[in-house]
Amino acid sequence: MKKYLQTILSKFTNRQFLVVAAILIGMWAGLTAVVLKIFVHYVTVGIHNISLSYSWIYLVTPVIGILLTVIFFRYVIREKLFAGTSHVLFAIAKKSSKLDKKETYSYAVSSAITVSMGGSVGLESPIVQTGSAIGSTFASFFPVGYRDRTLMLACGAAAGIAAAFNAPITGVLFALEVLLVDISVSSFIPLLISGAVGALCSRIILKEGILLSFSNVRDFDYHNVGFYMLLGILCGLVAVYYVRALLFTQDILTKYLSGTFIRLFVGGLLLGGLIWIFPSLFGDGYPTIMQLAHQKPGSLFEDSLISRFEDRQLILIITVFVLSLVKVFAVGLTLGSGGNGGNFAPSLFVGACLGFALSSVLVMAGFERVTVANFTLVGMAGVLTGVFHSPLTGIFLIAEATGGYELMIPLMIVAAFSSGIARFLKQSSLDETILKRRGGNFSFDKDTQLLARLSMTDCIEKDFTPVMTKSTLRTLVDVIAHSKRNIFPVIDDEQKLLGVIVLEDVRETMFNTALYDTVTVNQLMRPPQITALIDEEMASVMEKFDKSTVWNIPVLDGGKYVGFISKSNIFSNYRKRLKG
């Protein structure tokens, strides 16, 4: 089969092959996203209809959804669940953009179960994971290199996002901002094709009610620039709160509830309780966003504990603001209990609530120029930008959802302020924070990514001749005579590194033949100035080079000498990676 595919590949130029691949990946990922959205929509509607007669159903379904997700991964997939876009970034940085073939369906199925049964998370991150796995799997059928494989992975993610929102530009920009650290002009074409194909699948199949779309946008009023700045600052602060509160909630569940099923039931019941109080927390929250954008907050709390206050506008505004804060804990409970989903939709939810609350207060205070719908939509982009550090994605998502660019200026203002506040408070993006907690050195700039992909074992040089610590000067001189190196590691019988001998240090001594049998190596060696570990990150090794004056560093494995790593060898491997 592989030979047949290679024969097909040989008939295309690389550019032609990438275009064909982009079309096929876009269709595969786009149709997967569409099926996922349809399934979740109709199951959610069914549960909502049941809740009209049995309100307690909200206490039960989240637990069932999370339980089924845990069972699915533990006994069907038999692998650990890695939720979120950070898993894709990890694969790009550490696994040469290779994702398991099971991921072409496992994250779609599990997220469909979690979200449709009430898990307070979104489908977009699982769609990104699924689309990325589709692109990676497609690439595995052909003899392509890392660069093309990463591009195909990004094509799958772009198609998935484009299909989820019927927003092709957003899908492409998401792939560029979040997944790809380096991009050439020629790489835009496959991304654009995949995004267009994914959005086309969505536009042809999905009904209007399943997609986010807004038609009640008002023209931008420049008198509100100051209020948009205020909204941007609040979005940045709430985005920082979002990241920290989410991880705090998950940490609490992990720390105090060690058993998987105990954590599942306790977290699931707490989530069910929150949904019983705030039914709007059920699922991805898109119906809530639509209601807020159409200025119908009262309908969000029908048949809830606070429905008695729905005629009091200030109470409703406060409740919507509280809802934006509580949503984060609902997301944390869902993910911490074992459910699968993402933070894309929840961040939009939180932003919509924040924008609605602020604009409603301003209108009550007499600022009649303020348009609640506009602030609600712009707030979505603000929090999304602060959480993921992806301003272009946030800006163009709302621009495409509203069918125009009337809100472009306020979107740019809010995105800039939100991103600035998050960075000022030294809050990394959610994905980057998760990667750092997972362990290892991760960065999203090209240079550090290339360094991260360099393997320590590939860079170690083993032609440095070691000498035993008890050896005499005569032995050392013989070793020097047959070596092309000027550094000699000194080891003991257990191969442990005790020191190094530098040729410059012994140049005069080695010509004194009277000392050949009286002076030993341990009298001539110097302690190693710095060492590196066999499993150390390359960025950490480069930092050691920068802080020291050495050009070669000995590498240890459990204290035992392995070889040396040099700046020149790292640079040589780096250039090869850069060229590839």
Characterize the structure shown:
The structure is a single chain. The chain is mainly alpha-helical and 580 residues long. It has helices at 2-10, 14-51, 57-77, 86-94, 106-116, 124-140, 146-165, 168-179, 185-205, 225-256, 260-277, 286-293, 313-336, 344-364, 372-388, 391-401, 408-424, 430-438, 446-453, 456-459, 473-481, 503-506, 521-524, 538-547, 567-579, and strands at residues 467-468, 487-491, 497-502, 532-533, 552-557, 560-566. The protein folds into three domains: 2-209, Clc chloride channel, CATH 1.10.3080; 222-443, Clc chloride channel (Orthogonal Bundle), CATH 1.10.3080; 454-579, Roll (CBS-domain), CATH 3.10.580.10. It is built from 25 helices and six strands. A three-stranded mixed beta sheet has the order 1-2-3. The model has no long low-confidence stretch (mean pLDDT 83).
Entry summary:
The protein has 580 residues and is mainly α.
Helix content estimate: 55-70%
CATH superfamily of the largest domain: Clc chloride channel
Shape: elongated
Stretches where pLDDT is under 50 for at least 5 consecutive residues are none
| Main β sheet profile | 3 strands, mixed
Number of domains: 3
Architecture of the largest domain, according to CATH?
Orthogonal Bundle
Mean pLDDT: 83
Count of runs of 4 or more consecutive helical residues: 25
Please give the number of β-strands.
6
Q: Strand arrangement, largest sheet?
A: 1-2-3
Q: How large is the radius of gyration? A: 29 Å
Secondary structure category:
mainly alpha
The portion of residues forming beta strands comes to under 5%
- The CATH topology annotation of the largest domain reads as Clc chloride channel
Per CATH, the class of the largest domain reads: Mainly Alpha
